């Protein structure tokens, strides 16, 4: 049973600044002390409620190494949401966001929904990037910005809530068609039922609503 309105495919990328720890904190409420480099792709999932919708999230944690770039681009093309993470205590990781953003757009187009995350907000005395300049960059990317800490869990849940709400707003405004398979969205049973209830009973025999099902094959390495 697809007990949700929509399934959103998202991916999270950075350059070794704690994105995997953010995902682990979000899915399992745990923090990984030992640093582990993502090899290929890792995966997490969760279900949240946003604006009376039940949303299932698939979150793909992608490696930053060049050797995985061709494989990773396939995941970019099958996603609707992108989480770009940088380290608040490492200015180079912030400057690298422009390169990551360009790569994402080259694979997905301008419809991809983006949120920038400044990780390690618990280390305020070591920060090298100010909130205002990160907010300005997020505006250039037509996205949102939030600061979080994978260590303490501060604002980690909010990252995914904000991105989900952002995607829903685009759907409700008509800018994104959830039935179009180019977007990383699947329609669940709750949404099918809701749409059928909108159609008057007298018209249901003459109205057909079709929901194409994606046949994507996902592989985690």
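Sequence proposed for the structure above (221 residues):
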């Amino acid at each position: 049973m697809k007990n949700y309105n929509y399934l959103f495919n998202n991916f999270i990328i950075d350059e070794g600044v704690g994105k995997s720890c953010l995902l682990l904190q979000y899915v399992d409420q745990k923090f990984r002390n030992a640093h582990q480099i993502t090899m290929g792709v890792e995966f997490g999932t969760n279900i949240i409620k946003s604006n009376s919708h039940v949303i299932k999230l698939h979150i793909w944690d992608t490696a930053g190494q060049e050797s995985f770039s061709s494989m990773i681009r396939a995941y970019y093309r099958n996603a609707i949401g992108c989480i770009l993470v940088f380290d608040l205590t490492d200015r180079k990781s912030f400057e690298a966001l422009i390169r990551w953003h360009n790569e994402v757009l080259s694979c997905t187009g301008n419809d991809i929904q983006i949120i920038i995350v400044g990780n390690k907000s618990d280390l305020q005395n070591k920060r090298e990037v100010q909130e205002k300049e990160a907010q300005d960059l997020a505006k250039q990317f037509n996205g949102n910005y939030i600061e979080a800490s994978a260590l303490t869990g501060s604002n980690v849940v909010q990252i995914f809530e904000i991105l989900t709400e952002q995607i829903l707003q685009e759907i409700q405004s008509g800018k994104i068609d959830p039935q179009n398979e180019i977007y990383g969205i699947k329609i669940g049973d709750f949404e099918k039922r809701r749409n059928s209830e909108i159609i008057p009973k007298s018209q249901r025999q003459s109205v057909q609503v079709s929901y194409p099902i994606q046949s994507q094959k996902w592989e985690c390495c």
